[in-house]
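Researcher: We plan to redesign the surface later, but first we want a full-length starting point. Tokens attached.
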């Protein structure tokens, strides 16, 4: 039965997308076989992966599934829910992706978020700490899964420069440092994803459930008025980055500073 479902798995979205962007998704069975080749790294919560053409996240989702399984097994052994929650979040920060098509970027983030959230049981989903975790998970995914052209990491007219955040953990605290992909690629003397620390803007250190910030609740319903395009005065710098101030008083984290 599983085989039949996999045969039916949709591997292309349209002929045009195949022609324009080579968009053909890898079937689940092949993703699993390929992940088996690096099974130890997939089961290492902190091991970092970059998918330079991530699509909807077929590979990143499978890797996250394995990392969450490893975190669950370890926390189960200790009967430690706080440990699982932190390790599950750390797993999320370890995954990076780029895609040239914005809808793929959105799907990839949503697929990772759904899997991550679904791995938490009812007890773990209670209380303000969970709300903070969810917001912070979205924040991390906006920095880690990026719209960009991997072949033009400094950006072009169609795509922004690819700037990742190197997340460093100490206990429950996380510190993020921005790193331009082009600088990382030029550092030829290493095979580590993050090897240069030259570009600066820092996030934190903060407890991981506060990364998404304390976003103010909308004050009142938005009046039906035309939405103005964002202009520089709508942009505000926060401890954790830049955000667009919306008409209803809420904030939308931006992809790149
Ligand atoms: C062959 S699909 C593979 C998707 C996914 N990795 C998988 O295996 O299912 C290639 C993906 O790369 C994206 N892509 C094509 N050219 C790209 C580029 N220069 N930079 C980033 N992504 C690109 C496409 O939009 C598409 O989602």
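Model: Full-length starting sequence:
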């Amino acid at each position: 039965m599983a085989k039949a479902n996999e045969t039916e798995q949709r591997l292309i979205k349209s002929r045009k997308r195949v022609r324009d962007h080579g968009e053909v998704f890898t079937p689940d069975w092949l993703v699993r076989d390929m992940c088996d080749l690096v099974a130890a790294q997939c089961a290492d919560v902190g091991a970092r992966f970059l998918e330079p053409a991530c699509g909807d996240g077929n590979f990143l989702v499978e890797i996250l599934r394995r990392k969450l399984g490893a975190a669950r097994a370890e926390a189960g052994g200790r009967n430690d829910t706080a440990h699982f929650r932190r390790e599950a979040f750390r797993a999320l920060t370890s995954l990076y992706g780029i895609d040239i098509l914005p809808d793929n970027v959105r799907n990839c983030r949503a697929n990772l978020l759904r899997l991550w959230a679904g791995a938490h049981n009812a007890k773990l989903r209670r209380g303000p700490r969970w709300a903070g975790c969810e917001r912070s998970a979205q924040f991390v995914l906006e920095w880690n899964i990026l719209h960009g052209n991997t072949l033009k990491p400094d950006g072009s007219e169609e795509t922004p420069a690819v700037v990742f955040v190197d997340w460093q953990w100490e206990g429950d605290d996380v510190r993020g440092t921005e790193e331009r992909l082009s600088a990382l690629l030029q550092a030829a003397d290493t095979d580590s994803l993050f090897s240069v620390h030259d570009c600066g803007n820092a996030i934190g250190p903060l407890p991981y459930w506060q990364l998404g910030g304390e976003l103010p609740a909308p004050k009142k319903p938005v009046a039906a008025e035309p939405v103005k395009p964002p202009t520089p005065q709508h942009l505000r710098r926060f401890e954790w980055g830049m955000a667009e101030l919306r008409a209803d008083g809420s904030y939308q984290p931006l992809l790149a500073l």
